[in-house]
Amino acid sequence: MALSNGCSCRIGPSILNADLSDLAKECQRLVEAGSDYMHLDVMDGHFVPNLTFGHPVVKCLRPKLPGVFFEMHMMVSEPEKWVEGMADAGADMYTFHYEATDDPVGCIRKIKEAGMKVGMGINPPTNVEVVLPYVDMLDTVLVMTVNPGFGGQKFMTECLPKIEFLREKFQTLDIGIDGGVGPKTIQQCADAGANLIVSGSALVGASNPRECISYMRGIIDSGLKEINSKR
Ligand SMILES: O=C(CO)[C@H](O)[C@H](O)COP(=O)(O)O
């Protein structure tokens, strides 16, 4: 995909609640349903209280999904550690958490030097203003609307003002939203100004994922149009 290049809607399924024993097939199914990219959740059991997988799995997945954009959502402490491994495995974007490192600039540099795009995630308790010194260096900011660690949690509406704040300031920034996003909450995501839509259990479990993606895309496209018309 590349990212959106000027802020248009991109839908990236989170595979956390998919059948991880058949990850390639699950990703393929969601790509065929119209997804724009895959949001791959990496958890280390330290930054978050759960474990998933690391770069060896991504390396196996890469040749099975040629051309599919992989965003690695690195819910790990010391995110600097895994940059080379993920780049070598074929990841396209490395989204680390602001809360996970003492040196965000060093981490951003390392990711760029490794040839990947860079995202910065912020957890629900984190003030959105912390990202401001870094925005010019980032490809995306990922606003969490659940405390990371598990799929299927309740969407935290109280995080939406962070997206409104960022969209007000940065018209073309790719702003991701992650946690509890699906057809029931997509209107709120659109009204706030999100354009990178990470949807896990609602999309992976949808009886018709194509319809689900197209519905969410329609709402986000209209939301972005509405926001831009008011400028
Ligand atoms: O990062 C995550 C959790 O830490 C997941 O991407 C996210 O929660 C998606 O799952 P769901 O849409 O079911 O909430």
TrEMBL record:
Keywords: Carbohydrate metabolism, Isomerase, Metal-binding
Pfam families named among the record's database cross-references: Ribul_P_3_epim (PF00834)
Alphabetical list of SUPFAM superfamilies matching this protein: Ribulose-phoshate binding barrel (SSF51366)
Name recorded for this polypeptide: Ribulose-phosphate 3-epimerase
Transmembrane segments: none
EC number annotated for this UniProt entry: 5.1.3.1
Family: Belongs to the ribulose-phosphate 3-epimerase family.
InterPro entries, per database record: Aldolase_TIM, Ribul_P_3_epim, Ribul_P_3_epim-like, RibuloseP-bd_barrel
Database matches in HAMAP family: RPE (MF_02227)
Domain of life, per lineage: Eukaryota
CC cofactor: Mn(2+); Zn(2+); Fe(2+); Co(2+)
Catalytic activity: D-ribulose 5-phosphate = D-xylulose 5-phosphate
